[in-house]
Structures are given as structure tokens and as C-alpha cells.
Amino acid sequence: MTKTEDPAPVDPVVGRRVLVAVCGSIAAVKLPQLVSSLVQHGAQVRCVLSPKAEQFVSPLALASLSRQPCNLEIHQWDPCQPRPLHVVLAEWAELVVVAPLSATTLARLAQGLADTLLSSTLLATQAPLLVAPAMNTAMWDAPAVRANWQTLCRWPRLLPMVPTRGLLACDSRGIGRLPDPELLLQGIRAALATGGVADLKGLRVLCSAGPTREFLDPVRCLTNPSSGRMGVAMALMACLRGAAVHLVHGPLSNVPASWLDPLDTCPVVSAAEMGVALAQRLPQVHGLVMAAAVADHAPGVTSAVKWPKEALPNPLPLQGTPDLAADLAARMRGDQWVLGFAAEHGLDRARALEKLRRKRFDWIVLNPVGLAGRGFGNQPNGGVLLWADGQEQGLASQDKATMAGAIWSALAGELHRFQRSGPRPTVT
Ligand code: CTP
Q1: Which of 95, 116, 182, 390 has the highest Cβ tally under 10 A?
Q2: Distance from the CA of 376 to the center of ligand 1, in angstroms?
Q3: Which secondary structure element, helix H or strand E, spans residue 327, and what is its range?
């Protein structure tokens, strides 16, 4: 692997041909936002609508936002088209996003029924499919719908995005909502990066994210400015690429709420709580991602009631928090891996590698803080992924979700066949 100081950012969406297939469901009203967001991120977008979808979302709006004519049922057998439209669209697409997928179109696909422009396009394409059903909870639970869904999930190159929980248009609360456009965008990134192959399927991953807070009294604490965005992005991207993910996180800020929707989450506050939550889950997973910015110190004295400011201990005695990553890594089996993060001033590889060895990590992301466009609290991030033997891969300054995708792409192959040579050394 070559050394790359700052490679060009690679958002998998840029320049890619994405066909958005919209079915008849009230959730179709979210599609203009998704199409707009895809175009803004540099994708080429075309839309195809089922006959019912036209009643829920304006073809004119989708045409305007995609800068392309919107493909409707009436266009399929247009005598001015030299080739069948469903074949043209099927061959054009590098990825087809079916959102929302209705129960009717699901049944058509499961049965191979090519009786609409949209279903014939989906049957004709060889591009990967990202499918996001949305419907009433009882419909989603109906045995016939479930059977069709299981059939569809067996298709090759298909990434499923299951409905999320919340208030539905029928006024009930339950599972059935279309994932938010922001979450769909991340699913599209994962599908484009992997060619629709769920490359982390079969892996169980434990992630930590966010800062911890160490309270002095109910209104004062020691913490740091981590938003948690990088750790949650690692968890989300692993989940969208097929892994079963548990996320243990401190107080989050500036993380899109929808990123948490598909994750199994455990919110904690202090380093001690985070340590307990991670240790409980550790035996069941294949690997650990330690992206949390654990506070290094906790107050040496605490009070359950607010201290008047004049009574505050001054100087404040401090005590070190446990090094969670090192403690967890020391307990791991030989077939379990751990990816750490190192927040360093500048690109100090030697310091990051020293941390990797001291904490028994298998890889470490050197995450420079204090540089423009990188690090804590920033929207973009960047750095270098380091292997224990000194190999490295540069991570351009980019959106944290894209960076998380690049890290998983670099490691996916190794994770499935991970086995340490010999057991991890015990702690001394
Ligand atoms: N970490 C941890 N527990 C701590 C401190 C850090 O588990 N009490 C983990 C972080 O999640 C990260 C790695 O250790 O994966 C490195 O964290 P970093 O803040 O870069 O290093 P520190 O060990 O805190 O050392 P320093 O602050 O001196 O650089």
C-alpha cells in the first residue's frame, strides 16, 4: 500500500447514474428531497414512477430536481422511442433505488410480473438494487408480504433498507416508515461503494461513539467537544453494509437523528458506564470499533447536589478514567479484532502507532485534530488508516459518513478472515 498524504475525496455518489423508482405510497412525498440531495452530491439521477406514485408526488417536481424527464407509465410504449423504455432505463442505471417500495410492487417483483414500466425496469436491470419498503405496520407484518420480502431479499446485488418506526400516515405508530432521505442517501453511498454486495454481512460489530461526561455535581462536568458523528457513521455504514451492529454512545450532538434509526443503541453518560456496556456486549461480537472520545479525567470529588460556586473544590482534584480500549482489547479472543482511533495534533504517525501497540489495536485511524477540515466537532474529517506493520491508507478530508465507508472498504476483506496469530497477550 502506498503512502498518500491527502488523497482526493471519493464520495461514491459523484458522477454515478442512479435510477430512482417510486411506487404508490404516501411516503413518496419524501422523494423530491432525496433526488435533490443526490443531484447536489453530484449524482446523475433519473426517476421512474408507478401509475399510483403519480398521485402522491409530482412528476414535474422530480423532473425539475433531477434535471431529467420523469419516466411515467404512458411513456413505455411511445412510438418515438427507438428501444423499449424499460430496457433503456435498466441498462442506463448503475444503481436502482426503489423507494418507497409498495406491497403491490413487492408482489410484482417476487412473482416476476412485468406489467408496469417500473416493474419491468426492475426486472430487466442488472444493476444493484437498494429497496426501501414503506407501508402500514399490519400490511408489513402480513404473511404474504413477508414471504414476498424474503423472496426479494434472496436476489443477488440487493441491499434491503427495512422500514423505520414512528408515526404513520394512518395515524398509528409502528414499523412502516420510509427511512428519512438523509438515511437513504447513506444507504445509496453504501450500495454504490460495494456494488450492492453486503460485504460486511455475517459480521457482528460493537461500536463506541461520542464523548463521555464526568460529573462533578448535577450541573457541572468534565467532557470534550466530540460530536459522536464519526463513531455513529462507522456504526451506520457497517449496518448498511450488512453487519449486525451494537452502538454504545455518549451524549451526541450534530448527528442526524435518522442515522440511529437502523441501529441497536445503548446511550451512556460516563466512561465507567461506557466500559460496563461495552464489556457486556464484547463476547458476542467479531470486532470492536473504539471511536468514542472517552474523557481522560473525572473529578476526584463529586456531589449529588449542586455545589454553590464559592464551595467548589479549588483546585479541583482529578482522577484518571480507565483506558476502556486497552482493557477491552486485553480481554478479546484471538478471533476478535479491534479498530482504534487516535486524536493527535497533526499527522503524528509514530504516536498513533505507539498507541496501536500499547492498546493492542489491530488497526488505528490517525485522526488529526487542530487542522482545517479535520477532527472533533467538524463536519468533514480525514486522516490515515494505519496497520500494525506500518502499512497505511490516506483518508481524504471528507464527510464523516464517506470516510467511514472508505475505512470499511479498506478493511472488509480482512475482517472476514480475521484470526490473530496466537492469543492476545494478557495485561501485565
Ligand atoms: N480511549 C479509551 N479510554 C480512554 C481514552 C481513550 O478507550 N480513557 C480510546 C479511544 O476510544 C481511542 C483510543 O483510546 O480509540 C485513543 O484515544 P486518544 O484520545 O487518541 O488517546 P489517549 O489514550 O486518550 O491518549 P492522549 O489523550 O494522551 O493522546
Answers
A1: 95
A2: 13
A3: helix 324-331
